[in-house]
Every structure is written in C-alpha cells, then in structure tokens.
C-alpha cells in the first residue's frame, strides 16, 4: 500500500517539526540539569570523545576555531535526516515511526551518559526530547491518516486532512519555540550566579609580584602581536561545546591520592588567603602546527602548586614519593596528567586565579586553572579545575593519552614569522621580518633568519622576560624584486638549535622550521 507523495512530504515535515519539539523540550529540561546535557551538545561532545586523533587534527586544521560550530551543524543535519525519515515512516506505520523518534532520544541520552563525569540526570533532557518528539509526531500523523471511510476500497491511499495537519503543525512549532526560548532563558538564569561571582571577585595583590615586563620585550613591529596577549585574543583550545560557568562560591578543590597524608578540600577563599605568586608564562598547544596560532603569553596570578602539594604530604618521586603523576580533573570531566617531579622542581607551576590582572575569563577556566611553564597545555593547563589526584603514569591514562597523544610532553622549541604574511607583496628595499620564538622554561638565546636558503643571519631579540615566556625578534631584510622564501630557527637557552626535520603534531608536538614565501614587486 503506497502512500500518496503528499503524505510522504507531510511525513517529512511532521518529522522535522517533531524533532524541533524534541529539541525544545530537551532544552527546557537541560536548564534544570546542566547545559552540557542538551542533546546536540551531548552528541557533539560524544563524537569529539570518539574522534580519532588524526581526524581531529584535520578538523582543527581545516576549520580552526570554527570546528565546534561545524560539528554542531553536522550533528543537527544528521538529526534532521533521521527526523524526516521517522516522519515518513510514521505516515505508513505510526508506531514504528514514533518508536524511531523516541529511539533517537535514547541515543542522545546514551551519548550524554558516555561523557566523562556524567551522572544519570544527564540522560533526562534527551529522554524528555525523545518522548516529546514521539508524542508530537503521533499527533501529526494521525491527522494525516484521517480515519478510513467505511466505503473505502481496501489498499487505497487516503488523502490527508490538510486543515487539521496544518493547524497541529503550527501549534506544535509555536509551542516548541516558546518552550525552547524558556529553556534558554532559564539556562542563562542558572549561570547568573556564576557571572555575578566573577564580577564580584576581587583578586588580592600578589605576595610575590612579577617584575615589570622589560621595556624592550615588546619590539612593536607592525604585524607582530603585543608581548602580553590580551585575554580576549588568547587562543582557546578545549573540548567544551558550551563553556562551563562555575559559581565561585560553590567551587571546591579536592587534593587526594597516593602519598597524600593530609587530603585537602579548598574553597576559593582558602586559596586566595594564601600568598599569591605572579608570573609571566607563555602557554601553547600541542596541536599547534609549525607557524600556527595556538600560543599566547599572559601574566598569571595564582598559588604555587608545589607548596600546596607539600602541605598535603606529597613528596616528588626523587624524594621517595609513590606518585609520579598528578591528574587534574575539570568540572566537565576533562583529565590532564602532569609529572609530579616537574610541578615540584622549583618552577612556578600555578593554580591560577588571575590572567593579565583580572579574574580568569570563563573561557580560560574560571575560577581556577593550572598553568605549568614548559609543558603543552594538554599535559598541564587544566581549566575549570576541581580535583587533583596523585597516582602513577603506569596506573592511569588521562583523556588525550587514551586518544594516542603522549603521556608526557615538554614544549618543543619553536619560532614563527608573523610578518611579512605568506604571499605578501612587499615593495623592494628594507622589509622588517619579525615574529616570536618560544622554548618555555629553557628560554630563547638566539633566533636566525635566512632568505632563499642563503646564510643564516642573526635576528635582534626583544628583552627576555624570564625563561618561561616567548621572545619577539626582528630582522631587517633588504628585499629585491622576485619571489623569496624566508625561514626562521631558534636556539634555546641551553644551546640546542630547533630541529629542521618536519614532524606533525601527533604524538607530542610538531617540529620543523617555519617558512614564508613572499613576492617582492618590481
Ligand atoms: N577542562 C579543560 N581544560 C583544558 C582543555 C580542555 O579541553 N578542557 N584543553 C587543554 C589544552 S589542549 C590547552 S592547549 C589549554 C588551552 O588553554 P586556553 O584555552 O586557555 O588557551 O587548555 C588545556 N586545558
Ligand atoms: Mo592543546
């Protein structure tokens, strides 16, 4: 028995309307659970968790920071296809179609439950969404499948009742829009406390202030960013599809695990009552390609982690401590493992509360994150920190380690040409070639530049602001007409020259010299 094409179209439209109703109901429910549990976000996050490292690298390369938007649109498109399919099926077999709609909700719930740190409540929004979608779809298709007239020939397709279908469709879409909007508003209301807690936070002055940034650290070459990166321009890399907004008043940090003789539970006030250290640290991402943008430099304010760990009774492995890995966990379940030895070796490994003189922005980990000079972010810089657990590298693999990244990853020496830009067309004569170089905790001792494979020329370095930050550099180039390739390489504070060999970001950071091709016009 074939349904009329009009019924097929109505089924598809009904399926989409049912999906919209489901999303709206889920949004409303998520406002009472947490925003991360809404189905599109939960499924997107579950996809991120399961994406092989190589595919993720490709996505970040192709879409940059829009990768999250692309992902959410992809999930929405898949849902739309499923919804239309469920609607078309429902016109012929209402129960099967509605069951499919409900099953999509169960799938969303499973995705939400699979996230690290998820609890049973995270399943509720998707389940509510599936139920709402199934219900709305049932109402819509029963309108399409008007009761068969008694005299009707068996097997004949039935015309749909356009009027009641249209009316129901309008009501369903309208009610869903209202419910979805209410959910959004309620969700925003739910994070109002967090927003206020950040606005009200007054950071105490540092007991150990950082020396002022040397005047000559910033060479002020047009085309090179400022020495300290404003928080608003600071790169952001994380798996969070919605930025966690933590209420500072409710925040707690638990420190426990192997070798901890005095477990600690700290409030933000406890943390702020300790002497605060201010320190300039350049943070970079292991996913940064040679020449890439995922690096930034900030003035951090925080509590030295080593002192806190010592208070909890922790000894580093070199002093007989049983734990060699410190696992930081964030409120969204991210886990990041850092060597205990590194954190306690005297460097300014911080539990940071401030960034460039203000509380951390929500996107950068408010209220508290870790920052450890010399390590890539994925092994050191946990945002929205809530737990520190001492264990061993043998016993536990953190989030990215389970996805084929290295357990330990000190920052590799890198240098980048920021100006001229690739394929720039400068005029002949003096062209300022300039950029940044970094080798956190080892420092940068030299940067060299060459044109067209010629002899290396030493660039002028900006003043060093300690060993934990990048250094700017500049080299005046006498450009002659034609196409030219510029290359840069840095030497770290221990005399090791940045290797030429090109290697990708997996498993522990890219290597190779950055080069830029320009054509100097005649
Ligand atoms: N909770 C949480 N913390 C995280 C991440 C994350 O995904 N979730 N990403 C890490 C990575 S890979 C990097 S490079 C840094 C980036 O910090 P930023 O976004 O403040 O620049 O945060 C680290 N901390
Ligand atoms: Mo990263």
UniProtKB/TrEMBL annotation:
Highest taxon above the source species: Bacteria
Against SUPFAM superfamilies, the record matches this protein to:
E set domains (SSF81296), Oxidoreductase molybdopterin-binding domain (SSF56524)
What are the record keywords, sorted?
Answer: Membrane, Signal, Transmembrane, Transmembrane helix
User: Any stretches that span the bilayer, and where are they?
Assistant: 69-91, 98-117, 123-144, 165-183
Show where the Oxidoreductase molybdopterin-binding domain sits.
242-399
Signal peptide range: 1-26
Protein's name in the database: Sulfite oxidase
Q: Name the species this protein comes from.
A: Streptomyces polychromogenes
